[in-house]
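Schema walk-through. Below, the input block comes first and the output block second. Nothing else is stored per chain. Lengths vary across the set, and this one has 377 residues.
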Amino acid sequence: MDHVCKRFGEMSDAAMMPFNTMANSMNFPGSGMDDAHRAAPTGTDHLSGIQKAAIIVRVLVAEGVDLQLSALSARMQENLTRTMGEMRLIDRTTMNAVVAEYVDMLEQVGLSFPDGLDGALSLLDGRLDAMATQQLRMLARGANRRDPWADLEAAPDTDLLPVLEAESTVVGAVVLSKLSIDKAAGLLSQMAPDLAQALAISVAKTEDIAPDTVARIGVALAQQVTDKPLRAFAKPSTKRVGEILNSSPTALRDRLLAGLDNLDQGFATGVRKSIFTFQDIPARITPRDVPALMREVPSDDMMFIIAANTPEDQPTLEFLLSNMSKRIADTMREDATALPVPTAKQKDEIMARVMGSVRGMIDAGTITLQSLEEEDV
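--- output ---
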């Protein structure tokens, strides 16, 4: 075991080469070895390559070896970690057999080259001229990605417009020329008239641009548009607060919104756009969706809301009742008169159930919310 640790430490990156082979192969040992070394020792045939790699990692960690597993691909790191979490006990005979295989491979390594173009550039740093280095780094950025123009075609207009506005008109003209006609036309229609005209005129200047220049433009812009920093939360903060307030009692929601207005009116406005309450139904739900909505919402809950007879609820109640069967609406109104008026707490609980049903239908795509007028400005 000491021999494994010593060799791993001495060879550094070179020691990762057989490890990569082991982790990537489904049935280690891999190719490239002579017949004498290719035969797997008894007792390891039932293990996959990634399981054997996990055993080696466990042994080296136990021996205090500083493993540079960050050199592995993200997918390999994930698979290795998952495998280590799934494995339990390995008998000593199997462990020794796996270590013997690894040592055998380690002894065959004569020279280690860097992994990928980025690694080669780092190795040759200062030994290439600036122009060659720049071109190779551009190639390295695009080597492992799909067609950059496909990324730009799929990117939202809201991400592309700021990029086009910041770049030169010639670069913008190249982008418009490479995108689909519909995509380019949509982008032009959203630009300021002067910029749209300048880009359209600049298309004439793209005739003599070399293909490799167009390729570099695509790689650079695709990286700028698609390579965004990871965020802890997928939804913006205004939407997260709005969803919390959606499920909060009315009095608490109104109090918090008033406080937000005083502290940050812009943030409060964004939160209000994310809030969808019972009172918002007439403005956000189309009349044709009301019958489906009323079939989902318990009729008893609706009758208790009618019985509460709260002024702020009347517009929504009238909207719902007038867009459903008149017979059913009249029956609900009549039956509601026999019910006791719910307390404020009971009403909040009823509203929470009703809006939970509504939001469930929205999430399922059964009904669709209309955009608020202020969101379209």
